[in-house]
């Protein structure tokens, strides 16, 4: 049971990190397109 819980936590953490990375990359790309990234 502890092993299952650990794997579940790692899986959720991986999803959260992926979502966060996606938002960050999207924000950077949008900033570059708007020309605000290099200011």
How would you describe what is shown here?
With 39 residues, this protein is mainly α. Helix content is 85%, strand content 0%. The protein has one domain. The N and C termini lie far apart (52 Å). The protein is rod-shaped, with a radius of gyration of 16 Å. The protein contains 1 helix and no strands. Keywords: Membrane, Transmembrane, Transmembrane helix.
Briefly characterize the structure.
By secondary structure, the chain is an all-alpha fold. It is 85% helix and 0% strand. It has one domain.
Model regions low in confidence, pLDDT < 50 over at least 5 residues: none
Please indicate the percent range of residues in DSSP E strands (runs of 2 or more): under 5%
| Helix/strand class | mainly alpha
Q: What Rg do the Cα atoms give?
A: 16 Å
Transmembrane segments: 6-25
Keywords: Membrane, Transmembrane, Transmembrane helix
Secondary-structure map with pairings?
Blueprint: H1 2-34
Primary descriptors:
single chain, 39 residues, mainly alpha, 1 helix
């Amino acid at each position: 049971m502890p092993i299952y819980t650990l794997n579940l936590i790692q899986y959720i953490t991986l999803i959260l990190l992926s979502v966060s990375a996606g938002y960050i990359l999207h924000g950077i790309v949008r900033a570059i397109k708007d020309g605000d990234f290099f200011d």
